[in-house]
Amino acid sequence: MTHIAVLGAGVVGVTTAWYLRQAGYDVTVIERESAAAMQTSFANGGQISVSHATPWATPATPKKALKWLLKEDAPLLFRLRADKAQMKWAIQFLQECRADRADANLVQMVHLGLYSRAALQALRANIGIDYEQQTRGIMHFYTSQAEFDAAIAPTMRMQSLGCERQIIDINNAVNLEPALYPIAHKLVGATYTSNDESGNAHLFTQRLAAHCADAGVQFLYDTEIVAINKDTDSNTPRVHSLTIRPKGENAQSFCADSYVLALGSYSPELVAPLDIQLPIFPAKGYSATYQVNPRAPHLAPFVSMIDDEYKLVMSRLGDKLRVAGTAEFNGFNLELNATRCEAITRRVQQLFPKGIIASSVQYWTGLRPMTPSNVPLIGRAHIGQVRHGSYAQQQQKPARFDNLWLNTGHGTLGWTHACGSAKAISLLIQGQTPDVDFDFVAQ
Q1: 387 Cβ partners below 8 Å, 6+ apart?
Q2: CA angle at residue 65 from 62 to 67, to 5 degrees?
Q3: Among 68, 102, 148, which Cα is nearest to 309's?
Q4: Residues with Cβ < 8 Å from 101, sequence gap 6 or more?
Q5: Is a pLDDT exceeding 80 seen at residue 391?
Q6: How would you list the strands of the sheet with 239-246, edge to edge?
Q7: What's residue 76's pLDDT?
Q8: d(CA 290, CA 173)
Q9: What does the pLDDT look like over 98-133, one tens digit per residue?
Q10: Which of 89, 218, 271, 411 is most deeply packed, by most CB within 10 A?
Q11: 315 in Cβ contact with 45 (< 8 Å)
Q12: What distance in Å separates the CA atoms of residue 89 and residue 269, rounded to the nearest whole number?
């Protein structure tokens, strides 16, 4: 039986392991943490949001980023650093801000999002997994006329691509989510996507990992991946082995037939010695989890929400409200910034002051693996600069790796795209073509 090693046990890695095992492969997942979903997948916004497909890189973003540059609580904050990787990424990001590129990237994300949401729904129906899911849709709401006006064209574009995001008036918004009633006078408009969902990504990933283990997937937790070793005897690029270091032990060799890289922000450094250049840079995102007020639970939203002006998403998880968002480009720094944390709570208190217990807040931060385009890298690894769709466009195609695959760079939509990415990479490894119009790497 073909043995495949999946590198990383976040939501992308675990879903990859599930689909590969269902396809009949012998699968081992290698993870440096002591359990699945302990980093970026731990406390994210909890949304399956096909409707959240507008990329960060748009023609309007550079002006906004300059305005926000010195604002500590800005939704998008670039911290200028003497970091070549960050500067290179920023240049690529600016290139993606062209109107034609922004539209092309939106198309990619909607296609993958629809494919992935359907895959998640099928998986849930097949195995009965429960993860505090809500199937009440997702609402984008606006208290800024300029932000609402800017959302109309992308909404229409998403509709043309099959995403059922609809513009709704304030009365409809309040009827769908009565918790908005106290601030209805502040709203200028909203959109609603009925088939989008929400839930606890950490719980989903851990429970799916348990299903994987029951199905025969082996998990090597507390194990650092030190290096990916190239086969120097092969005529084509090929991975020979991994060097791993289990906690408390010496480094050792680990061999499989193929390898899938699903290490998020930590992917580029690991493959750089193989002359693979991944345009991924960490964007530090924040989340705040509040206890819902037991005396007024109806004053906290049940419908999952997106506050586009402040770049925040909100999901009801049982008796808690998870609010996540913002992006801080500050390398691999994981310190909680009090100003940015307090900005989240301040906004939530403006919106739902009686619906949550603000003093119960638990803050968290994690590194989202961002590509300049916001489109993830899914497909076969190849030598040189990797971008989705770039391989097919090159006249002199760089050499592809025989047994190294990429499923990384999912940015803010890791859980939204996880099942679709995993299903697709499984099919690609089997030599099949996934039924989705998406620019897979090196295809």
Answers
A1: 279, 371, 373, 377, 441
A2: 110
A3: 148
A4: 57, 95, 373
A5: no
A6: 223-230, 239-246, 252-254
A7: 78
A8: 23
A9: 999 999 999 999 999 999 999 999 999 999 999 999
A10: 411
A11: yes
A12: 14
Which pLDDT tens digit goes with each residue over 310-365? Answer: 999 999 999 999 999 988 888 999 999 999 999 999 999 999 999 999 999 999 99
Question: Is the separation of the CB atoms in 68 and 309 below 8 Å?
Answer: no
Q: Are 264 and 278 in contact (CB under 8 A)?
A: no
Element (H, E) at 400: strand 400-408
395: its two tokens: 């006249």
Query: Pairing between strand 281-292 and 3-7?
Result: unpaired
State residue 16's pLDDT score. Answer: 98
Return phi, psi of residue 280, to 5°.
Answer: -120, 130
pLDDT band at 392 (very low <50, low <70, confident <90, very high): low
To the nearest 10°, the Cα dihedral for 338, 342, 343, 346?
A: -170
Section 181-200 average pLDDT: 97
Q: What are phi and psi of 364, to 5 degrees?
A: -150, 155
Residues 6+ apart with CB under 8 A from 67: none
Residue 205 backbone phi and psi in degrees, to 5:
-65, -45
How far is CA 418 from its chain centroid? 8
Q: How far is CA 324 from the centre of its chain?
A: 12
Residue type, 60: A
Residue with tokens 């009090």: 338
Indicate if the pLDDT at residue 401 is higher than 70. yes
Residue with tokens 């009949």: 24
pTM of the predicted model as reported, rounded to 2 decimal places: 0.97
User: Is 425 buried (19+), middle (13-18) or exposed (0-12) by CB count in 10 A?
Assistant: buried
Give pLDDT, residue 393. Answer: 66
| DSSP characters over 46-69 | -EE-TT----S--TTHHHHHHHHT
Partnered with residue 253 across adjacent β-strands are: 243
Total number of residues shown for the chain = 443
Tokens of 241: 């082995």
pLDDT of 338: 94
**Token pair listed for 94:** 């600016």
Helix (H, G, I), strand (E, B) or coil at 174: helix
Mean pLDDT computed over 211-231: 98
